[in-house]
Predict the structure.
Amino acid sequence: MRTLFKTDYRQDLTIWRHRGDLFWYGLLLLIVLALPHLLGVFYIGELGAVFIYAIAGVGLMLLTGYTGLVNLGHAAFLGIGAYTNAVLLTAGWPYLLTLPASALLAAIAGVAIGIPTLRMSGLYLAIATLAFGEIVSNVLEKWDSVTHGFNGLPVPIPEIFGYPIAGATAVYYVALAMLILTLWIAANILRTPFGRALMAIRDSEVSARSMGINVALYKTVAFGVSAAMAGLAGALFAQYVNYLAPNSFDVLLSVQFLTIVFVGGVGSLQGVIFGALFVRLLPQAISIFRDDLPGNIGHLPGLDPSLFGLILVLTILFQPTGIYGGWLSLKAWFQDFPLHRAGGFRRQRSYAKSERV
Amino acid sequence: MTDVLRLLQLIVNGAASGCIYGLIALGFVLIYKATEVINFAQGDIMMLGGFAAYSLVAWFGMNYWIAALGAIVITAAFGYLLDVIVIRRVIGQPQFAVVMLTLGLGFIFRAVAGIAWGYDSVGYVTPFTNRTVRFGHFVLGYDSLSIIGGTVVLCAVLYLFFNRTRLGVAMQAASQNQLAAYYMGIPVRTIFSLIWAISAGVSAAAAVLLTPVAMVDVNMGFLGIKAFAAAVLGGFGSIPGALVGGIVIGIAEQLAGFYLPAGFQQVTSDVVLLATLILMPQGLFSQKIVKRV
Amino acid sequence: MALFRAEGLAVHFGGIRAVDEVSFEVDEGEVFAIIGPNGAGKTTIFNLISRLYTPTMGRMSFRGHDITAIPAHRIAGLGIARTFQNIELFAKATVLQNLLIGCHCHVRASIAAQILFAPSARRDELAHREKAEDVIAFLDLQRYRDAHVGGLPYGVRKVVELGRALCTEPKLLLLDEPSSGLNMEETEVMGFWIEDIKKDLGITVIMVEHDMNLVRQVSDRVMALNYGRLLALGTPAEVQSHPEVIRAYIGGEVPA
């Protein structure tokens, strides 16, 4: 068991908790950087997709997990980012400009839905974002002149300083770089007054206002930042799929992002990574084990979504802290061994916050 | 066909589809009023009810009316069990978790339905299929009439139930103040399960009424999204409001489909929803309650 | 000079006059208590001052500025802090984080600077941490510093809420029923803290209270309300023996 001895407030400001963390995360980074030399193209492609989903997941985690604003239309921001990137690349813009432009346009959309929904909470907000997502999906479909609608939009291959971003490995590294950037920004937010203000808004808006937090402004900024991250992910997604179709950005994708945040572990960045791994790799795992399942189960048509739903339900019922919560419990077990008590990890009883008076 | 007749036609069709939205919304609002649970699987429960009716007719050869009643009862029992086995366990979790739970359940229902009944649309013969009544140039389908009529009957039954029977009044009490209801000796948890049962049964009725028009298929439940719009428009605490909201949206959709360019009809319900939330968040009938600190 | 002044303050909810033309002044450095039966409008006045409600009539001024119409989130920056009757802490955070949020109105760094964790954000964080630690020392909360608020006992949470209000470095502190839910010892300690806040920190306090002993112990002046209307205003002794006040609490005629 490690005892942290702190002598300076600055030690509480760092992103990592102690030298040990720094070592392990550094090691992880080295492994991740080296993976393209160790794994085949297929796996690298999948991991690239995991990174892209994780970027969008971080945005959603900040908005829903941290600020408490349920967003059922997150995929819409992804779609806006993806199409913006494709359209601008086709128009000849350099990649280093199309990426921020996609994020910016998505951010504007985020603010556009954030402002009217300022006074909504919980249920109403969820439904409003759902409707917003549907509308954006429809617009992407019907705005033929720009998006080519159902015919699909091919995505040109961009270049960074003459180096083409084509193929799984290039996408992998670009996505990784963007993921690290996104995680850094999120970690910064979480250790500053801005992040605490978001959490305050989630837990008690009235109190937050009384503490001087401009709730309307912060909610709007949260929407904007969240959408910007999703827009960035969308731009990378365009590179990943090479051909955009409007019905990819529907409510089912939004639910996948919510699953990432939830199954991974609400309120933690590590949870987002776990969640993204889970959501992207589950279909792969199913197809690997498909033939080993008894009878005909493995080949039933509705297997993927039903397993998806089943795991979601089971997680909520039995492991509401998500994968990361489970990981922390496991670590605590090992650290306390053999003195671990069964109830030792539970922090507090949870009572639902009623919306009624 | 004159403009007035066409308008009337659109209104009747809109009212019919609106009744369906309203019924689903009704089920949704019943649950929300009682337990603050947002049941995103409401549409999918409707879908299961539709398939139940289909199975009773196509596989067991039952008479339409008996099958309809049977489907309602079976789905109601399913709703009851759903609450007892799954939903009760998440009381106390934040709303986000419950939202995810019902979304997950929706996935499971759709997938199981696909496995059991396949992904094609299926239908069965009803007393209302393909029959119409004419008033000169004005054609009314029996199916639309049956939907509207069925909804009226169902609402009358529910009204009498909630206001004139002990159980119904107990349900109202439990919805308004759980603690006080406990003190009065009302078995609140059982009541909530019964509310789930009623809600599921109403959705099944909606599916049965809808079958002559739209057949039954796995994705039928996506109507649920329009039901949300109906519930919001009506004001979330209000049951008659949910119906009125549904009918307004149904009619608006038909009018949009005819008078506006292509593509607008699909987003009508979403636009109405957003507009309501932004401009008139309390809906048509509800009152706003502010938290006291 | 009066630190805070309310003139003809009134708020109507439909037909109910929750606060009915109340006027009073609070001087700098005093402890001013508001008493009255339940439903008298005491917490409503607090909600008016912290701008969670908008008055139907009347005006309020703080240090000479008219605050009747400013947005609620600007109140803390002006120097008015409050606690809540039912403890509105941030339940999922630690005590330290709750206190740090109290420092929010003193943030200098812009949001952009914070997202990039620029030196200005770093400086803000360190300054807030110092302030929070000062408050922790003042209120003896050291052993609860990293505890999740949701799991703490009620009495401790009340103290944390007090601490959070102190972190905003207020000139005026509104305490809503500081002793409710506390046993006799805890109430006594609360009384000492209110005195310390007044003497050592120089903060003016307005408190809503039911516990007459506490009121007598710490307050300089008392205002009694009933049905939203002002009944009496004066020293604790004057108000407690005022016939209108006695009638409001006990009812009926005052025995001759």
In short: The interface with chain C takes residues 293 of chain B (CB under 8 Å).
